[in-house]
């Protein structure tokens, strides 16, 4: 795996590397290999993942066919809404 460093911008290159590793599933693999997983647990996990993938594909297909409404857009905190953690303060 290669990441180019442009203009000595190492931080941007690190970000790109992390994104590539995330996409390849390296972090997930490391987490799974951290401890021993019994074969029965592994089968159960893989079966649950397969079911989750199949449901996701079916849900997307139904949305495309118009049988389900499209997903609601995610609202980012602080974007267009008042942030509840930071009350408005006045400077007098």
UniProtKB/TrEMBL annotation:
<keyword id="KW-0689">Ribosomal protein</keyword>
<dbReference type="InterPro" id="IPR001911">
    <property type="entry name" value="Ribosomal_bS21"/>
</dbReference>
<dbReference type="Pfam" id="PF01165">
    <property type="entry name" value="Ribosomal_S21"/>
</dbReference>
<comment type="similarity">
    <text>Belongs to the bacterial ribosomal protein bS21 family.</text>
</comment>
<dbReference type="GO" id="GO:0005840">
    <property type="term" value="C:ribosome"/>
</dbReference>
<keyword id="KW-0687">Ribonucleoprotein</keyword>
<protein>
    <recommendedName>
        <fullName>Small ribosomal subunit protein bS21</fullName>
    </recommendedName>
</protein>
<dbReference type="InterPro" id="IPR038380">
    <property type="entry name" value="Ribosomal_bS21_sf"/>
</dbReference>
<feature type="region of interest" description="Disordered">
    <location>
        <begin position="56"/>
        <end position="92"/>
    </location>
</feature>
């Amino acid at each position: 795996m290669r990441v180019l460093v442009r203009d000595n911008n190492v931080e941007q290159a690190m970000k790109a590397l992390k994104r590539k590793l995330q996409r390849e599933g390296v972090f997930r693999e490391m987490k799974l290999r951290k401890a021993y997983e019994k074969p029965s647990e592994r089968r159960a996990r893989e079966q649950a993942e397969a079911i989750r993938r199949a449901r996701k594909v079916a849900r997307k297909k139904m949305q495309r066919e118009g049988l389900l409404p499209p997903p609601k857009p995610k609202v980012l905190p602080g974007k267009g809404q008042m942030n509840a953690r930071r009350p408005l303060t006045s400077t007098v």
